[in-house]
């Protein structure tokens, strides 16, 4: 019999600050963490003017100097989110449980800040050496390894890199291990810290970045706004969670994973629809059981139209009864961490029977004709939720959650 998966802890770092409560309160209020971008290295002439950065974050307040030398910003975020999630779960890892705990952390880019710093040393400053911990800082698997080391966890530990679907893929991989008895517990999610000069210039070159703010599904949307942060969750066997009296936040009931097999940039209606259908089927649900979709909703012209069409294809007439929101107007698009940050919204919508709004919404777009809950949170019954992540490369990952 397939194990059911309980989510018993969650932690987050975002432009709203430290902690899942800070993120959730910002989501509910539609209080945006998007602000003027502080240019890296004081660079002038950037076309990117706004971002959802965690401004004012002081790593030295959280990590001792010896440890900080090994930590890129991407790993710092993952560790802080993991601390919060594990504390909330109430799990105390002993030798037995540590051996049966997996760690899976997604990231789209990895230690980009450290890579950028050391590249400046080599190519601008003509330094003969780089920081001795450079490899440790930049490797994409560092966040997962460091989380596992912090808690002496010895189950399967690895990273997942699938662009903006990385977090959802990581959480699904962790859940698969629990389902099939390869682990009894998992610490899973995603992390990203991408505000470097080279990264910003690369996103500018794609011409998909907004110059005002992120307005998903809105007629006035002008593109995405980059964000950063992390979301980490504790997963465990449902029976075990109940037996120990854990506060079960939600059930991770199913997931749908797939690829478009088409364009590396342009999204596909069919690919997104297939992932949503599979998540619903895998969860043992029907389309009409879903009350809320936390959409990928990047605020780009093509993505929002495509996702709207995919939802209509999957849900038919029930699409008009759905609440569909994107929270990226609050925390920006955190790339490999996006799905994990947005899972905080999906879980809390189930727990509080309260749907966060789509922030910064002005006028509806006729091509985006669903109920996007503009600007004001809504009290409503929420039995089951989908959380969508659709990535460059045509990579799709959708999570289905049920209330407990």
What does this structure look like?
- It is a single chain.
- This protein starts with a strand and ends with a strand.
- Helix 1 (20-29) crosses helix 14 (338-352).
- Helices cover 35% and strands 20% of the residues.
- The strands form three sheets. Strands 1, 2, 5, 6, 7, 8, 9, 10, 11, 14 and 15 form an eleven-stranded mixed beta sheet that branches. A two-stranded antiparallel sheet has the order 3-4. A two-stranded antiparallel sheet has the order 12-13.
- The chain has helices at 20-29, 65-68, 73-89, 95-99, 112-124, 134-138, 142-150, 166-179, 197-206, 238-243, 269-282, 301-315, 328-331, 338-352, and strands at residues 5-14, 17-18, 35-36, 50-51, 101-106, 157-160, 185-192, 229-237, 250-259, 292-294, 323-325, 354-355, 378-379, 384-391, 395-402.
- It is α/β, with parallel strands linked by helices and 404 residues long.
- The longest helix is centred in the N-terminal third of the chain and has 17 residues, at 73-89.
- The chain has two domains: 5-243, Peroxisomal Thiolase, Chain A, domain 1 (3-Layer(aba) Sandwich); 254-402, Thiolase/Chalcone synthase (Peroxisomal Thiolase, Chain A, domain 1).
- Helix 12 (301-315) links the parallel strand 10 and strand 11.
């Amino acid at each position: 019999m397939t194990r059911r998966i309980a989510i018993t802890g969650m932690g987050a770092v975002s432009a709203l600050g430290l902690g899942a409560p800070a993120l959730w309160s910002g989501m509910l209020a539609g209080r945006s963490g998007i602000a003027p971008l502080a240019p890296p290295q004081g660079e002038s002439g950037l076309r990117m003017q706004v971002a959802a950065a965690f401004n004012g974050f002081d790593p030295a307040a959280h990590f001792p100097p010896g440890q900080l030398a090994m930590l890129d910003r991407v790993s710092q975020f993952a560790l802080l989110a993991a601390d919060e999630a594990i504390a909330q779960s109430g799990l105390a890892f002993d030798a037995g449980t540590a051996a049966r705990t997996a760690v899976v952390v997604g990231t789209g880019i990895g230690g980009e800040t450290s890579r950028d710093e050391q590249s400046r040393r080599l190519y601008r400053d003509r330094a003969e050496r780089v920081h001795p911990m450079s490899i440790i800082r930049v490797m994409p698997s560092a966040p997962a390894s460091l989380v596992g080391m912090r808690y002496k966890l010895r189950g399967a530990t690895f990273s997942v890199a699938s662009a903006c679907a990385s977090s959802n893929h990581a959480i699904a991989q962790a859940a698969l291990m629990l389902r099939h008895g390869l682990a009894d517990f998992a610490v899973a999610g995603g992390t990203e810290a991408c505000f470097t000069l080279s990264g910003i210039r690369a996103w500018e070159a794609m011409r998909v970045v907004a110059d005002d703010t992120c307005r998903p599904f809105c007629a006035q949307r002008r593109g995405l706004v980059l964000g950063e942060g992390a979301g980490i969750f504790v997963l465990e066997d449902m029976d075990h969670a109940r037996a120990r009296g854990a506060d079960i936040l939600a059930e991770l009931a199913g997931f749908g994973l797939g690829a478009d097999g088409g364009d590396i940039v342009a999204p596909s209606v069919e690919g997104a629809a297939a992932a949503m259908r599979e998540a619903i089927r895998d969860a043992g649900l029907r389309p009409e059981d879903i009350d809320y979709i936390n959409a990928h909703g990047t605020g780009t012209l093509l993505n929002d139209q495509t996702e709207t069409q995919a939802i209509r294809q999957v849900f038919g007439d029930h699409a008009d009864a759905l609440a569909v929101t994107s929270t990226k107007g609050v925390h920006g698009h955190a790339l490999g961490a996006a799905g994990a940050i947005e899972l905080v919204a999906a879980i809390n919508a189930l727990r509080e029977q309260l749907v966060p709004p789509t922030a910064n919404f002005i006028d509806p777009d006729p091509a985006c004709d669903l109920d996007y809950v503009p600007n004001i949170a809504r009290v409503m019954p929420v039995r089951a939720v989908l959380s969508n992540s659709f990535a460059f490369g045509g990579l799709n990952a959708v999570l289905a959650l049920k209330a407990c």
